Amino acid sequence: MSPASQLAPVPADLPARIVDWARELGFADAGISSCELDADAAHLRDWLAQSRHGQMTWMARDPHKRHTPSALHPGTLSVISVRMPYRPLAADAQQVLADGERAYISRYALGRDYHKLMRARLRKLALRIEDAVGPHGYRVFADSAPVLEKALARDARLGWIGKHTLLINEQSGSWFFLGEIYTDLPLPKPSSAPVTDRCGRCMACIRICPTQAIVAPYQLDARRCISYLTIEHRGAIPLELRQLIGNRVFGCDDCQLVCPWNRHAQLATEADFAPRHGLDTARLVDLFAWTEDEWRRRTEGMALRRAGYAGWLRNLAVALGNAPRSQAVIDALNRRAEHDDAMVREHVAWALARHRSQTASG
């Protein structure tokens, strides 16, 4: 624990000042929460016990650290949560989803990867706090360590966790990133009541999910989730889910697109989140033609790197298998039919067979 937290009293107005500083740094809002996450720990244990994390083995690694902030960063007494809007000014998402010749990429991944940007801003915020109260022990996170960020943000009064398991803010919807500062400062916790869950009887996110990954309100089975399948999953995509993926090649936003609260969603204020390389309207056949060198060059500094090049081609092959049949689509698939990667070859073969079967039945 730092000398500051042991000796210097924390000014009563510090939480309000933290919110102001966070907004000056480009965050939409900030809040303080305690470190008590017992109910969320039980939910996590149940989720893991049902293997709903799929291949994300890191979710099951050291779960105690995930729901006990002081175990992850010793000395932590308080958590500062922030949110930053990422919804870019881009081509209409529904129009892209309806156009089977185009690739749908999750809105968060169209521009710069947020992880480093968020952590850099959080460090600046931590230094602002240090300037005001002296040294304090802290660590910053932006989806970069075992943190129950949605639960912490909920407890910081930044919103409620919706039926799709994402955080929803009444004024801003759900199109935002979350980040945290774990600190050993004994910051005053919110005196206001928790934000009321305002999902009500709405089931829009559950009904719209293409693969029915939201198996019940507030319960997500990642093994069926398109975001998981196209980003985190390694290996073959289950046959029964391929057709349901449609033209989604990296992530899925359907549950957010249909959420009524996103009528109020803010556009991103960060210019780096704007779409790069025309990816908000890109054609599947064009993306499938990228060489690995071209893919590395074009995706530098972007979340798209997460899938890996073979995963990128796998996802595109599935989307091309679901695309309207055309000579351009067939030619694109045939050019990858003998790809070095067995996984890519298998998904290309599936796509070509799908087009052949449609021709035969037509």
TrEMBL record:
<dbReference type="Pfam" id="PF08331">
    <property type="entry name" value="QueG_DUF1730"/>
</dbReference>
<dbReference type="InterPro" id="IPR017900">
    <property type="entry name" value="4Fe4S_Fe_S_CS"/>
</dbReference>
<dbReference type="Pfam" id="PF13484">
    <property type="entry name" value="Fer4_16"/>
</dbReference>
<dbReference type="GO" id="GO:0052693">
    <property type="term" value="F:epoxyqueuosine reductase activity"/>
</dbReference>
<feature type="binding site">
    <location>
        <position position="205"/>
    </location>
    <ligand>
        <name>[4Fe-4S] cluster 1</name>
    </ligand>
</feature>
<keyword id="KW-0411">Iron-sulfur</keyword>
<dbReference type="InterPro" id="IPR004453">
    <property type="entry name" value="QueG"/>
</dbReference>
<keyword id="KW-0479">Metal-binding</keyword>
<dbReference type="InterPro" id="IPR013542">
    <property type="entry name" value="QueG_DUF1730"/>
</dbReference>
<feature type="binding site">
    <location>
        <position position="143"/>
    </location>
    <ligand>
        <name>cob(II)alamin</name>
    </ligand>
</feature>
<dbReference type="InterPro" id="IPR017896">
    <property type="entry name" value="4Fe4S_Fe-S-bd"/>
</dbReference>
<comment type="pathway">
    <text>tRNA modification; tRNA-queuosine biosynthesis.</text>
</comment>
<feature type="binding site">
    <location>
        <position position="225"/>
    </location>
    <ligand>
        <name>[4Fe-4S] cluster 2</name>
    </ligand>
</feature>
<comment type="subunit">
    <text>Monomer.</text>
</comment>
<feature type="binding site">
    <location>
        <position position="252"/>
    </location>
    <ligand>
        <name>[4Fe-4S] cluster 2</name>
    </ligand>
</feature>
<keyword id="KW-0819">tRNA processing</keyword>
<keyword id="KW-0671">Queuosine biosynthesis</keyword>
<keyword id="KW-0170">Cobalt</keyword>
<feature type="domain" description="4Fe-4S ferredoxin-type">
    <location>
        <begin position="188"/>
        <end position="219"/>
    </location>
</feature>
<feature type="binding site">
    <location>
        <position position="66"/>
    </location>
    <ligand>
        <name>cob(II)alamin</name>
    </ligand>
</feature>
<feature type="active site" description="Proton donor">
    <location>
        <position position="143"/>
    </location>
</feature>
<feature type="binding site">
    <location>
        <position position="209"/>
    </location>
    <ligand>
        <name>[4Fe-4S] cluster 2</name>
    </ligand>
</feature>
<keyword id="KW-0004">4Fe-4S</keyword>
<feature type="binding site">
    <location>
        <position position="259"/>
    </location>
    <ligand>
        <name>[4Fe-4S] cluster 1</name>
    </ligand>
</feature>
<keyword id="KW-0408">Iron</keyword>
<feature type="binding site">
    <location>
        <position position="178"/>
    </location>
    <ligand>
        <name>cob(II)alamin</name>
    </ligand>
</feature>
<feature type="binding site">
    <location>
        <position position="202"/>
    </location>
    <ligand>
        <name>[4Fe-4S] cluster 1</name>
    </ligand>
</feature>
<keyword id="KW-0846">Cobalamin</keyword>
<keyword id="KW-0560">Oxidoreductase</keyword>
<comment type="similarity">
    <text>Belongs to the QueG family.</text>
</comment>
<feature type="binding site">
    <location>
        <position position="167"/>
    </location>
    <ligand>
        <name>cob(II)alamin</name>
    </ligand>
</feature>
<comment type="function">
    <text>Catalyzes the conversion of epoxyqueuosine (oQ) to queuosine (Q), which is a hypermodified base found in the wobble positions of tRNA(Asp), tRNA(Asn), tRNA(His) and tRNA(Tyr).</text>
</comment>
<feature type="binding site">
    <location>
        <position position="227"/>
    </location>
    <ligand>
        <name>cob(II)alamin</name>
    </ligand>
</feature>
<feature type="binding site">
    <location>
        <begin position="252"/>
        <end position="253"/>
    </location>
    <ligand>
        <name>cob(II)alamin</name>
    </ligand>
</feature>
<feature type="binding site">
    <location>
        <position position="255"/>
    </location>
    <ligand>
        <name>[4Fe-4S] cluster 2</name>
    </ligand>
</feature>
<feature type="binding site">
    <location>
        <position position="199"/>
    </location>
    <ligand>
        <name>[4Fe-4S] cluster 1</name>
    </ligand>
</feature>
<protein>
    <recommendedName>
        <fullName>Epoxyqueuosine reductase</fullName>
        <ecNumber>1.17.99.6</ecNumber>
    </recommendedName>
</protein>
<keyword id="KW-0963">Cytoplasm</keyword>
